[in-house]
Design a protein that fits this description.
This protein is of the alpha/beta class. It is built from 14 helices and 19 strands. The strands form four sheets. Strands 1-2-6-5-3-4-7 form a seven-stranded mixed beta sheet, with helices on both faces. Strand 1 and strand 2 form a beta hairpin.
């Protein structure tokens, strides 16, 4: 049994009802309830959040049933963000946190993200236990099935909307400025942030213009949100807004738009945030963490500001681990996962939007001007849909190395950990060469898939 058969880089994810089923969610809850109940003096406690997908309710109830049947109390946050589950887990001393979401995937997919008591991604030991149980391997459990709790040992479910409200209060408290007089666009992706984002920015005094705030269970991420930034660009330009912020389905990432309609990716957000924190003497060691997919121009632009960049593998867990090891207080990915370790142990799109607005207000200039010293290298990213990711990658790494040498590029090819696609990134001084490399590599991947 492979440890990664079910859980990938960002939880257990796939088509709801086919891959991510109510039965498997129940079994995951059973293992978690059993594991933490054996380590708790009293009853163990888990907190559960979900996004707005039609299937999220089914999976939430299945997880709660599994937890309570194994003797763990399940606290229900209802529709909320992944970062809020992390925050509540950590601050309210829960044994673990669970988020039902497939992030930026379409509505028919769903996923289960697991967090430890520190609000970080679940430890490998627990994931291995769950994987074994899902495969029917009872060896780690003494060869017997997990016992059901009885009598007073049976867990209960608790409505915990107060935890979500406390998280909203936490977000509001992060700002040291009033946003009165500022016009802010918000795109909730018809997902977890559809109502929370408005509440936060209204409380901070901004005049808000909101789209993606009408979830119906099937429209999450549909032509909206951080992966479809055109909708927010139109909102900002048509209403002459000062800035706009788009979130993904579970709001752990943020992509921004400045007052001129320019898209601000995670790389630009890191540049603005690093420069701002350095000016405020709050950038420990004058360094940040970014990933191999970050634009090379970010590293060069930050160097001119006296800021160094530590490069790590792709994934917010890799970013958090590198930040912890190096002592950096800021890190993130081009996709918009940004971590401010002073406030969170994971990426939080809403924290990111507040930190950008703090920089705008404190520096007394528009968002576009905060990027005046940033120069990106030509970079093209491409997702190639495939059926078998392993087969699709045959010979791709060797071809990529050859193209790097011949076209003077930096190329990264990798199978996605969350979707059935192979991702290609090509970067260099020539945009034409980047496009050529992506074309050649995508043809190879598609050839392998046929």
């Amino acid at each position: 049994m492979s440890q990664n058969r079910y859980f990938g880089t960002d939880g257990f994810r796939g088509e709801a009802g086919a891959v991510v089923t109510a039965e498997l969610a129940y079994k995951i809850g059973r293992v978690l309830g059993w594991y933490y109940s054996r380590r708790s003096d009293g009853k163990s406690r888990a907190v559960i959040g979900k996004d707005t997908r039609l299937s999220s309710y089914m999976l939430e109830y299945s997880l709660a049933s599994g937890l309570t049947s194994s003797g763990c109390d399940a606290y229900i946050l209802h529709v909320t963000t992944t970062p809020s589950v992390s925050y509540v887990t950590r601050c309210d001393s829960f044994d673990c946190g669970i988020m039902v979401s497939a992030s930026h995937n379409p509505y028919y997919d769903n996923g289960i993200k697991l967090l430890n008591d520190r609000g970080e991604k679940m430890d490998g030991e627990v994931i291995s236990l769950i994987e074994s149980y899902l495969d029917g391997d009872l060896t780690p459990f003494g060869g017997e099935d997990i016992p059901f709790a009885r009598g007073r040992d049976i867990g209960r479910t608790v409505d915990y909307i107060s935890g979500r409200n406390r998280y909203i209060g936490h977000l509001i408290s992060l700002s040291t400025c009033s946003y009165k007089g500022l016009r802010i666009g918000l795109d909730g992706a018809n997902g977890s942030a559809f109502n929370i984002a408005r509440n936060v920015f209204d409380a901070l005094g901004a005049k808000t213009f909101v789209i993606g705030d009408s979830p119906d269970g099937t429209n999450i991420n549909e032509n909206i949100g951080s992966t479809h930034i055109e909708a927010l660009k139109r909102l900002v330009l048509e209403n002459s807004l000062d800035a706009g912020f788009a979130f993904d389905g579970d709001a752990d990432r943020c992509i921004a738009v400045d007052e001129q309609g320019n898209v601000i990716t995670g790389d630009e957000i890191l540049y603005v945030s690093a420069g701002y924190l350095k000016r405020m003497n709050a950038l420990a060691g004058d360094k940040i963490v970014c990933t191999t997919l970050s634009n090379g121009g970010l590293v060069k632009s930050l160097k001119k500001l006296g800021i160094t960049s530590e490069i790590c593998a792709v994934g917010d867990k890799a970013v958090c681990d590198a930040m912890s090891a190096s002592g950096a207080v800021l890190g993130g990915e081009r996709s918009g996962h940004i971590v401010y370790s002073k406030y969170e142990t994971t990426g939080d799109g809403l924290v990111t939007s507040i930190m950008l607005m703090e920089a705008v207000v404190e520096m007394k200039c528009p968002l576009s001007r905060l990027l005046a010293g940033y120069k990106a290298l030509p970079q093209i990213s491409l997702n190639v849909p495939v059926v078998d990711k392993t087969a699709a990658m045959k010979g791709v790494a060797e071809l990529a190395e050859k193209l790097e040498r011949e076209l003077s590029l930096r190329i990264i090819t990798r199978p996605s950990g969350t979707e059935r696609v192979v991702r290609i990134m090509a970067e260099g001084e020539s945009e034409e060469n980047c496009a050529l490399a992506c074309k050649i590599l995508s043809s190879k991947i598609l050839e392998n898939s046929n």
